[in-house]
Structure formats: structure tokens, C-alpha cells
């Protein structure tokens, strides 16, 4: 429950009397003190804030604010993206008995030569400019010829309003790849501020994020963890992916199920306590505000295509990708199973706090206590 919600709830029971209002505010403030919530601080120390919930996508209402894309696959996959009615009718999307959200490729139809396989691609109706995006899922798609992605896409002409591939991979790879596609103004900076490995192109680090160059490859970072993609990710119960996008850059974290931070589980995320991200695009080499504009959130599963198709021969997968496509048994693991996705926004607080995360946690209590003192002073001065 939010700070103001606590006020409203408590105040209603006290009939909004002067004494009741004070009581409600005191309860609300002490609840914030007790929570020990960590304050976040911008890199230059100019802003102190917390991440507060903006949107939650989960359960039976998950698809209510998503559009189903039905056009041709821009990445040349051997796929038919289905509309909402077809997707529900063919059980390509549904809700499990545990109320998880299921999206999958068709795994029941045997195809003749030259026919594409049905699947889904959905895009959020709401567009975002910065935020903290967190996805909790039990399973993610994988398999020979399978190419899934959880990503955001700018509302203008590609790639000039940006693309952020938060979760992406092909076949039965074991490592997630984070990629940015932009106009000609962005480069990836080699740094020890992230733990992943920069993707190479012809033996050289691919630092150019320009989506119009180098075959639209963008600039990518591969995660080090084998639990970030594929069969290992599913086998250990899935996990959480998070992308923080603000004036300090764009950073991505992933956590296997047993390592999901408590602050994420309680809905009070504090990225400053999560350790180094697996991937990061620094603002010094790419302005995260002007190069990424009006982004929708997208989930999709395609087959073969520019990446999974072109890499198939060297992937260790049997036969050819078009032949693989025919047998539905090959796609039983091409499935998203999502617990929830949440988008958080910054709530800026007065005052600036610097120091370690533990110091900022302690300072949180002092901010709320000082607010309580100010409240009491105002109350006794109220005539």
C-alpha cells in the first residue's frame, strides 16, 4: 500500500477529524520508517529518489493493454504472427491453473514444406520514456530454430528512436544476450562496470550501436551465467530480469530463482543494492534520453530468420532450420510462462543523500522521522 493510500484508509476510519488525521499520518510515516527502504541516488548526487510502481502486468488482465502484431516478421522468421482471437483460440496464449501467463509457438501442427509456424508477438499499448522494468518468469522459450525476445522498441523510425533487447537468444544457447540498436550516435564503452562479455564481429569488439551498420547487429553483451537462457534457466525454476533506464544509462540484471533479491520480491526494488549489472550502456557514449524515445514493451517468439536461421548450420542442431520447422514436437519448449511484469518510476525526494547503500538505508528513516517532526509542529500550530 502506498504512503497516501495508508493516509486515506486510516483517515476514513477516523472520520477525518483533526486528531484522526494526525493519527493516520503518524501511522503512515512510522510504517515507512519501519520498512527501512533504501534510497537511490543519481550518479552525480543531485537527485535522491525511490522506485514506485507505475504499471503491473499479471494474471487474467495481462493481455488487456497489449496489441497482437499480425504483420510480416521484420527479422524474416518463418512465422505467422496471429491476432488475439486466433492466439486464444489455438491456445497460443492462455492462463495456467496457477494464473501464470502462457505465450507459446504452435507445438501441435505438422507443417508441409514451405509453410510457416504460428506464434505470437505482442506490444504494449503504453509507451515509456525511462523506468525500471522487471520481469519474473518461470520459463522462457528455447530450442533449435527458436528465437525469442523480451524487448522495447521506440515509436518512431527504426533505429533512430532505439531498440533495447533485454532478453534474447537462439537455439538451446545457455547465455542471454543484451543488445542495443540506435542511430549513429551511440557506442558501447568497454568498462569493468558490467560483468558480461561484449559481442565480437569478425574478431573485433562490436562497439558500434548503429542499427544501420554491420548488418543491423547493434552493440551487444552476452551474460556470463549459464542460468540466464535455455534449458538451465528453465530447469532451476526461471528467474528475474530487470532493466533500469534513466539519465545514468541503461543497465540490465538477471537473477536465477534462488538469487532473486528480497527487495524485488517485496515490491520495493533498489537497484543500487544488486551489485554490478550484466550489461550497461553508459550515458557518456550514448545519451539514454534522446536516443531512446516512446518505447513499447514487446514479447515475441519467431523461428529461423536472420539470427536463428543464419546461425543454424553452426549451432549443433540437426538438419536444416526449414526442415526442423515441420515437426511440432521440436517446439514444446518454445514457451513463455510469466508470473508478472512490473514497471516502476522514480519518486524524487527532497534532499540529497550520498554514501554507501547501508548509509542510505539508515538515512531513509531519518527523512521520514524529520517529516514526522514537521507534521507534529504543523499540527500544534494549526488554528
From TrEMBL:
Signal peptide: 1-36
CDD domains, alphabetized: GH16_fungal_Lam16A_glucanase
Domain GH16: 41-316
A single GO BP: glucan catabolic process
Keywords assigned: Signal
Alphabetical list of SUPFAM superfamilies matching this protein: Concanavalin A-like lectins/glucanases (SSF49899)
Superkingdom assignment: Eukaryota
This protein's name: GH16 domain-containing protein
Organism in which the protein naturally occurs: Cerrena zonata
Amino acid at each position: 500500500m502506498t504512503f497516501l493510500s495508508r493516509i486515506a484508509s486510516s483517515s476514513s476510519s477516523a472520520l477525518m477529524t483533526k486528531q484522526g488525521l494526525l493519527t493516520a499520518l503518524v501511522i503512515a510515516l512510522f510504517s515507512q520508517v519501519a520498512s527501512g527502504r533504501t534510497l537511490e541516488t543519481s550518479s552525480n548526487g543531485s537527485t535522491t529518489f525511490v522506485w514506485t510502481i507505475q504499471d503491473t502486468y499479471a494474471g487474467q488482465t495481462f493481455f488487456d493493454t497489449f496489441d497482437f502484431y499480425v504483420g510480416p516478421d521484420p527479422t524474416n522468421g518463418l512465422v505467422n504472427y496471429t491476432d488475439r482471437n486466433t492466439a486464444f483460440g489455438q491456445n497460443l496464449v492462455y492462463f495456467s491453473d496457477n494464473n501464470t501467463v502462457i505465450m507459446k509457438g504452435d507445438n501441435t501442427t505438422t507443417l508441409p514444406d514451405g509453410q510457416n509456424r504460428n506464434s505470437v508477438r505482442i506490444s504494449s499499448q503504453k509507451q515509456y520514456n525511462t523506468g525500471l522494468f522487471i520481469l519474473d518468469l518461470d520459463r522462457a522459450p528455447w530450442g533449435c530454430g527458436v528465437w525469442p525476445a523480451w524487448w522495447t522498441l521506440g515509436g518512431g523510425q527504426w533505429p533512430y528512436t532505439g531498440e533495447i533487447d533485454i532478453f534474447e537468444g537462439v537455439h538451446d544457447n545457455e547465455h542471454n544476450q543484451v543488445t542495443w540498436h540506435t542511430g549513429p550516435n551511440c557506442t558501447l564503452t568497454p568498462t569493468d562496470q558490467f560483468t558480461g562479455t561484449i559481442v565480437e564481429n569478425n574478431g573485433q569488439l562490436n562497439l558500434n550501436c548503429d542499427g544501420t551498420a554491420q548488418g543491423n547487429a547493434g552493440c551487444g553483451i552476452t551474460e556470463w551465467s549459464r542460468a540466464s537462457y535455455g534449458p538451465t534457466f528453465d530447469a532451476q525454476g526461471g528467474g528475474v530480469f530487470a532493466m533500469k533506464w534513466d539519465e545514468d544509462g541503461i543497465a540490465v540484471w538477471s537473477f536465477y530463482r534462488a538469487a532473486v533479491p528480497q527487495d524485488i520480491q517485496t515490491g520495493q526494488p533498489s537497484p543500487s543494492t544488486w551489485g554490478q549489472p550484466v550489461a550497461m550502456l553508459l550515458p557518456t557514449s550514448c545519451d539514454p534520453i534522446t536516443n531512446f524515445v516512446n518505447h513499447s514493451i514487446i514479447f515475441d517468439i519467431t523461428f529461423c530468420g536472420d539470427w536463428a536461421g543464419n546461425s543454424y548450420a553452426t549451432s549443433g542442431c540437426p538438419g536444416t532450420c526449414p526442415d526442423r520447422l515441420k515437426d511440432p514436437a521440436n517446439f514444446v519448449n518454445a514457451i513463455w510462462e510469466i508470473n508478472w511484469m512490473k514497471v516502476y518510476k522514480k519518486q524524487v525526494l527532497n534532499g540529497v543523500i550520498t554514501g554507501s547503500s547501508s548509509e542510505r538505508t539508515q538515512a531513509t528513516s531519518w527523512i521520514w522521522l524529520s517529516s514526522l517532526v514537521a507534521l507534529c509542529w504543523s499540527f500544534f500550530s494549526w488554528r
